[in-house]
User: What shape does this take?
Amino acid sequence: MFDADDLYIFPVDVWIQDGVQWLALNLRPIFLAIKWPVETLLSFNDYVLHEIPFPVFVILIALLAYRLASGGIALFSAIALIAIAFMGVWSEAMTTLSLITTAILICAIIGVPVGILCARSDSVWNIVRPVLDVMQTTPTFVYLVPVVMLFGVGTVPGEVAVVTAAAPPLIRFTNIGIRMVEKEMVEAGLAFGANNRQLLWEIQLPLAIPTILGGLNQTVLTAMVMSVVVAMIGAEGLGLVVLQGLGRLDVGRAAVGGIAIVLLAMMLDRITQKMAQPKDQKAKSLLRNLLGLLQIGGVGEPLSTPPGRPAA
Amino acid sequence: MPLRGGFPVLMRNDRRNSPLHHRKTDHALSSLVSLAISAAGPARDQARTRWEPIVTECLKIENLYKIFAKSPQQAMQMLAAGSNKEEVLAKTGAVVGLNNVSLSVPAGAIYMIMGLSGSGKSTLARCINRLNEPSSGKILLDGEDIVGLDEERLREIRRTRISMVFQHFALLPNKRVIENTEFGLKLRGVPLQERRRRAEEVLSVVGLSRWAFHFPHELSGGMRQRVGLARALATDADVLIMDEAFSALDPLIRTEMQDELLRLQRTFKKTILFITHDFQEALKLGTRIAIMSEGELVREGTPQQIVLEPKSDYVAAFTREIDRSRLFDARSVMTAAHAVTRMQDGGVAGKFLVSGEAAFVVDSDDRILGALSAVDQLKANSGTSLNSLISSDYIAVPASAKLVDVARVYRTGQPMAVIDDSGKLIGTLAAEQILSRIAATSSPQPSSFGDQNV
Assistant: This one.
C-alpha cells in the first residue's frame, strides 16, 4: 500500500483538460483580442524585414551595432548576417528576427510599466512576483501546451509563447532597477519638491536604465531561445529548419539552422549587452538611450553652448 | 565695586538711552575731570545684545517627536511619563529618533545641529522638510506649521522655501552640472531659458561656470558639493538644510568649503540649518549651536556660551580640545568703556578714560587721541595741559580680532585699546584677561555672558 502506483490518482489531467476547454470555448473573444495586436505587429515586422534588401539590412545592422556597441561588434554582426545569407536561410532568419523584435516591442510595452508598478507598490510586487517565479521556472517547452490549447497552432500563437516567456526578466529588472536607485537620489528629488511623476521620469527611470537594459538583454536571449522552440507548434523561422532537418535525419540541414541561430543569438546578445554597459562609464539619460536606439544623434547636447566647449 | 582685571578704568557708556548714561554725562560735564568707575553689570548686557543679532525667528520647532515604529502611541506615552530611549526600545521595540525637541532658528543664522551618529541630528533636519514624517510636534516656518501640511502645499514649500544639500552630493549622474543646478527650477516648471540663465548665475557664484556642461563624475568631491550648493541656491529658497554637507570631503577641501559657505552667506543671508558631527566645524560656521544626544537637545547657545559653559560632561567632552584663542575675540574679554569724562583743554577737546594705570583720551567721536599713563593722569587732574601729556604709545585692536591675533601684538607696558569698526574706543584689554580666557577649563563655571537656554 506504500507503492505510489497503488494510490488513488486524482484526475488532474482531466480537470485541466475540461478547464482549458471551457476557457477556449467561453473566453474565445478575449484570446482573439490578445491575438489581434500580436498578429498585426508580427506581420508588419515580418513584412518589413523581408522587404529590406539583404545588403541594405546588413549595412543597417552594422551601423546600429556601431552606434549602440562598438566597431568590433558591428563587424561581427555584418559577417554573421552575410554568413546566414550565404547558408541559404536568410528568409527564415528574418522570420525568426521578426518574431524576436515583435516580442521585444511587446515585452517593453508591457514589461516596463508592470515593472514600474511593482517597484512603486509592495502589494503589486507580492502578487506579480510568484507569477514571475512560475513563468521563469516553467521549462520553455511546457509553455507550448496552454498556448496551443488557447491560441491554436502557427506562427502567431508561437509569438504569444515567445512574449510570455520573454517578459519576466524585463519586469524583474525594471522593478529591481528602480528599487535600487540610491535613497539619497530619491530624497534629493523629494527635497526639491518632485511629485510622483517627476520622481519617476527625472530620477528613478534614468538611474534604472542600465539595469533595465540588462533585463532587455535577458529578454532578447529568452525570446531567441523561445523563437526556436515554438517551431514545434508550427511557427516558421530558423527553428523550423532545425526541426525539419531532424525529422528527415538531414544532419546538414539541421546544422545550418543551428549555426544560423547561434550567429543571430550572439549578434543580438553582444549588441544589447553593450547597451546595458555604457561605453564611457556615464549613464545616459532615458531619452538619450531611447533615441539612441533609433539612431538619432546629438540629443541632450547643451542648448546655449556649442557641443565642443573646451574642457578646463 | 568690582574692578575687572585689576584695572580701575573710567569707562564710557555708549548705551545712549540708559538713565545711567545721562546721569554720568551730566556729572561729567559739571566738572573738568572726574573719576567714575562703573560696575561690570551693564557691560555684560551690552555684550550679550551685540553677540546675538536675533532679527526674527524664521524657523521654530516645538516639542517635536519622531518615533520609528508602526504605531508610536505607546512609545509617546512612555516618553511623556519620563521613560528614556532604552526603556522605550526594550518595552515597545520602537526607536526614538527625536524626543521633545524645541528650538528656534533666527532668520539669517547658520544654525548648527551637532551630535554624534545616532543622536538624531539628521532625523531632525529631515523632519523640517518632512523627508522624515514627525510623530508629533510643530515645525513653524514663519508661523506656518509644516507638520500638518497637505502634499500639495508641502511640495510648494519644498520648491520655494526650503532646499537641501546632501552629504554624498546626490547629483544626478546622467545630468550635466548645469542641468543638476537647474533641477529644482525644472521641477517647479520654470521655462528652460529662464532656469538656464538662473543656473548660470548661481554656477558663477560658486565658481563653476567653466564646468557647466560637464558631468558630475568628471568633477572632484569639493566641486561636486559646490554643484550641490548651487542647486540649493538656485531655487531661491530662504531656508537651507545642509545635512553633513562637508563631512564626505577631505580636510583641506572641507576648510575651503567652510570658508566658501561663510563667504556666500555674507551675500545670500540664508537661514541655514547645518548638520555636523564635527564640533570644530560647528564653532567655525555656527551663529548658534544645538547639541543633540539620544534624540534630545542637550545644549543650545552661541559657540562662546557653549565653550564657556558646557553644563554637562557630554558637551564638555567636545569643548575640551578647542583652541579658545581662535574662538573668542577681543570684545568678549575686554573691559568695556563706560563712564565719560569730558574736558576742554587747549588743543585737545574730548573725553578721556582714566584709570590707575592707563587711560585713553578720545575726541567727540570717541576716536582715540592718545594714551595717558597713571602718573600723567594725576598731572592732568592738577591742571597740566592734556596736549602735552598724551602719548601715542599704545596698541589698538579691533573688537572682532581673535585672541590669538591680539596676543601676537601685545607688548608689555603698552596699554591696549579695543576699537569697533568705526574706530571708536569701546574697551581696554590686559594680558591677564587674554590669558585667563585662553586657559579656561571646560568645567562648569559662571559665564560673563549670561545664559540663553536649556
Notes: Chain A is about 75% helix and 0% strand. Residues 280-285, 294-312 of chain A have pLDDT under 50 and may be disordered.
